[in-house]
TrEMBL record:
It comes from the Bacteria. InterPro entries: Bact_solute-bd_prot1, SBP. Residues 1-30 form the signal peptide. Coiled coil: none annotated. This is ABC transporter substrate-binding protein. It is found in: Cell envelope. Keywords: Signal, Transport. Belongs to the bacterial solute-binding protein 1 family.
Length: 443
């Protein structure tokens, strides 16, 4: 009963954080890929093993994952992956929570790093060590080729519990017309953005230099860590949220909003719409949101492009978001081997490149950047290149038991800044105390 209660707590605590991390997905035209031959472990029965896969992909993303799944199923006759859309991300989280309590989990599902600590703490996930993966047919070369930052996205208490799949990074969208109007180059630092904001305010411009999502906690964490704050130590769980470096970063963001150099999306929900209507010179959002910007910007005749996220204190750093694929402990050994074969297939260079082209997410392995079709795609759509340039220095926020509750507290703290103009020092001191209490309560 204790585990059940803990899992129900998860179900009410992680929905907001999970949605934020997985939101702003891009769109695209899914196309079928010819299947690659994938080596999989022989099944003992000789019959095809069914692998149930729950996800929250919709629209073009649904078409893309269906095409890849069909290609995998056609590439071998040992496993059949049956993908089942659970609705949106909230519905997927609710379905996982309910199935965890009832004991009717699928073989695998999409997970965010927010989900992992609670599921792992309830012994519902299989630890995915390198040894486990390779013994079940995962190619060592593919494992070695995964970008380092992605390898840490679902690590909890030094164990990996999910494999990277639909990953995104932050991306800065810019309005070339506004930059030309003020005769400035594309900013690469927050100080340059602040300077542009001052020019625009002095000119009586009701547009802003920078647009932010209503949930801008990732921008704050990025800036704090660029500025030297450790934030939360993944090994010791020591909290550094109210350090001088962290406070300085939030004070900078708060001042940007108070001086009307920046604003959040407000009633629009996400800033892709306001940016596409020409209401800001720049906007930071998910790299998977390219297709949300494109139709609005083109409808309004906006000349736009993308760039790497700006630096604060000259430090290159960006945060990874998105989702991974977890394997449930209730799966049989044959189903576990099927999971490994399927993920190995998805992470082949041609397939992760195809997924990136069809969805707006980024490739998972470095070799994908050498796939001829992807090279040609980037030539035709250079706006997708900026996200890839950040893959080498992207990092993942460490997760811990109670992480979903922490993310909700972090979002609330940012609302205090944007809505109530609260004092950053006080806000972060309170968040520090709340975070330490959450970590202590979940030991």
């Amino acid at each position: 009963m204790q585990n059940n209660k803990k899992l129900f707590k998860l179900g009410t605590g992680i929905l907001t954080a999970g949605t934020l991390l997985m939101a702003a997905c891009g769109n695209g035209n899914a196309t079928s890929k010819e299947a690659n031959d994938v080596t999989a472990t022989e099944t003992t029965s000789g019959e095809t093993v069914e692998i149930t896969f729950w996800h929250a992909m919709n629209g073009p993303h649904q078409e893309a994952i269906t095409a890849l799944t069909e290609a995998f199923n056609e590439s071998q006759d040992q496993y059949e992956v049956v993908e089942q859309n659970q609705g949106g991300y909230d519905e997927l989280n609710q379905a996982i929570t309910g199935a965890g309590v009832s004991g009717e989990l699928p073989t695998m599902s999409q997970l965010t790093s927010t989900d992992v600590p609670e599921l792992a703490s309830n012994d519902l996930l299989v630890p995915l060590s390198d040894e486990f993966l390779t013994e079940n047919g995962f190619e060592q070369g593919t494992l070695d080729d995964i970008y380092e930052g992605f390898k840490e996205t679902s690590v909890f208490e030094e164990e990996r519990y999910a494999m990277p799949f639909s990953k995104s990074t932050r991306l800065m969208f810019f309005n070339q017309d506004i930059l030309d109007e003020y005769e400035v180059e594309t900013p690469s630092t927050w100080e340059e953005i602040e300077a542009l904001g001052k020019k625009m305010v002095e000119a009586g411009d009701d547009r802003v230099a920078m647009g932010l999502e209503n949930g801008f906690e990732m921008e704050y964490e990025t800036m704090a860590r660029q500025n030297g704050a450790e934030f939360i130590n993944g090994e010791t769980l020591e909290v550094d949220i109210d350090s001088a470096e962290s406070v300085e970063a939030l004070e900078f963001l708060g001042n940007m909003m108070q001086e009307s150099y920046a604003r959040t999306a407000g009633e629009d929900g996400y800033f892709s719409g306001p940016f596409g209507r020409g209401e800001s010179a720049m906007y930071i959002g998910s790299s998977a949101g390219l297709a949300h910007v494109a139709p609005v910007a083109e409808e309004n005749g906006i000349d736009w492009g993308t760039a790497e996220v700006p630096t604060f204190n000259d430090k290159e750093l960006t945060l990874f978001a998105g989702n991974d694929l977890g394997l449930y402990a209730s799966a049989t050994e044959e189903e576990q081997a099927g999971y490994v074969a399927y993920v190995n297939f998805l992470l082949q260079p041609e397939n992760t490149a195809q997924w990136a082209m069809d969805t707006g997410y980024v490739p998972i392995v470095e070799a994908a950047l050498d796939v001829p079709e992807y090279i040609e795609f980037l030539k035709e759509d250079p706006r997708s290149e900026a996200a890839n340039r950040m893959l080498d220095y992207g990092v993942t926020s460490p997760t811990f038991a109670g992480y979903g509750e922490f993310r909700n507290e972090l979002v609330s703290a940012m609302e205090e800044i944007s809505v109530n103009n609260a004092d950053p020092q006080t806000v972060l001191e309170n968040l520090q105390t709340e975070t330490e209490s959450i970590i202590e309560a979940n030991k």
